[in-house]
Design goal:
The chain is of the alpha/beta class. The chain has seven helices and nine strands; from the N terminus they run βαβαβαβαββαβαβαβ. A nine-stranded mixed β-sheet has the order 3-2-1-4-5-9-6-7-8, with helices on both faces. The longest helix is centred in the last third of the chain and has 18 residues. The radius of gyration is 17 Å and the shape is globular. 39% of the residues are buried.
Length: 223
Amino acid sequence: MPGPIVVAFDGTSAAEHALLWAAATAVRRGADLVIAATTWWPVTLEPASAGVRLVSVTCVDHAVERVTAQWPGLRVSGLESGGAGELLACAAELDASLLVLAADTRIPWRALVYGADRPLALVGTVAGPVVLEVRARQIRRDALALAFDLARATGTGLHLLHTAVVWHCARAADLAGFVVAELAGWLASYPEVAITYQFAIAPRSRALNRGVRTANVLIPARR
């Protein structure tokens, strides 16, 4: 059985959408769901100051009840995680198989992308593709499996967003060839998934920012 799926929840409509997505994904993947009450403040990886109003436990309790009512067979629990750093620590402690966030402008997703040590999914509300970041010559098998599974389930296709450091730009053709070679077996296993590819010349943060605005789900590469 895979580790639990942890979803950050702050009670907003974007978080509600991410919560439902995470619950449906947990059911499909046979995983438990953990709803983490998360409050985003400007200093993203530090403890909250005394004046910060945290998400109430009652809010999370209601979320657990709603999800349980819709998916009675899903094991759901809630916890308080505080801010971004605490959320990452909770995911690591639980050995989460996936960390889910809403693709919301208030969320410090860049800090989370750079700090995450496990698969992370940024869930949007647009009908775009599943976007998987490929970083230079690194493609993790667990990220590919997740991306293909999600693309097949949603029917929205899979878009590979290839980011690289500046000195790699002159070798874009070589990097594209690397991706094609890596995907050969996956394409045979997922013939129904439409694949598109983009080599991003823009800096990584800018490319990811564009990707998250047009994706159904964005799966950034891990460090």
